[in-house]
Amino acid sequence: MNLPTKITCARIISIVIMISGLFILYCIPNWQTIELGGTGINLVFFVVFIFFVLACFTDYLDGHIARKSHQVTDLGKFLDPVADKVLINALVIYLISPSIFAPYIPNADKVISFNMWCAMLLVVRDIVIDALRFVGARKEIVISANSFGKLKTVLEMIAIGAVLLNGFPFRYFDANWPAGLHVVDILVYLATIASVVSGIIYLVQNKHVFVEEKK
Predict the structure, then answer these.
(1) Which is more confident, 161 or 19?
(2) Which one in 71, 83, 106, 141 has a CA-CA gap of 20 to 30 Å to 62?
(3) Burial class of residue 60, CB neighbours in 10 A (0-12, 13-18, 19+)
(4) For 176-191, how does the pLDDT look when each residue is reduced to its tens digit (9 = 90+)?
(5) Domains of the chain (ranges plus CATH)?
(6) Concatenated DSSP letters for 69-82?
């Protein structure tokens, strides 16, 4: 196992620890909030945001090292998108509804959450693509991430980061939007559209994976 693959594995482990820590921390009530530009952010979410940024950085780092040192492997091509999915889907599911963490956040009704329907589309899309990769692996076909998949991952990371920070710094622009609509909502919708479109592209480009071989 080379260095880029080790970084990817470390990212997967850190994600599991981060999500586990979230649930453990929320067993302790009355976590305080911090103020950033007039936006109240739960302290736990702020800490998670820092770990989230670090995890996103390692996503860039392992790919950069692999390409720069010519250490791109089939295992790395397989694990890298898996690590992204664990990171994205775990946080998306956690952030679906403010009711999950409302008892621990002052003014929970003012907390931005991840749209449930968008979250469902993101998760279902990834399940379908994972099935595609599984079938491909059975036929010794490696389906690596393409530019469309990478774009949707970047958009998802931006949207999740904004939700974790309760809309900061986009709260400044919310006053000019229709009531009930936030800039973060637009980011979530864009990430969802990119995810669905990239999923369709994956299926079209790799439709041969589902074709039965003639005996």
Answers:
(1) 161
(2) 141
(3) exposed
(4) 665 556 788 888 999 9
(5) 3-208 (1.20.120)
(6) TT---HHHHHHHHH
